[in-house]
Amino acid sequence: MESLHCYGMTCAIYHQLPSAYYLTARFPNDFESAVLHAVNGGGENQARATLAGALVGAQVGLSGIPRRFLDGLDEGETLQRLAMDVALRVAASTGAGTS
Fold this sequence. Notes:
By secondary structure, the protein is mainly α. Helix content is 68%, strand content 0%.
């Protein structure tokens, strides 16, 4: 419940983390909802959206991020290639599959 109180607060790390963790738990398989709630939550929304997007993005994988979030992104192809490289390296070291 403390994270709900912190949602929309300033950028101090002790407000960012609980808010991003809350959004990750609330939308574990919905990248778009997590990021949009983070952005629209007020306060220092960029930092919160970045962290929530990273956490939920790691859970849903590149295929779980809507194309409209990726299309037109500066150096988007390079970033996607790097993300896939990281995922493949993690999968190879843990024996897990990628999405």
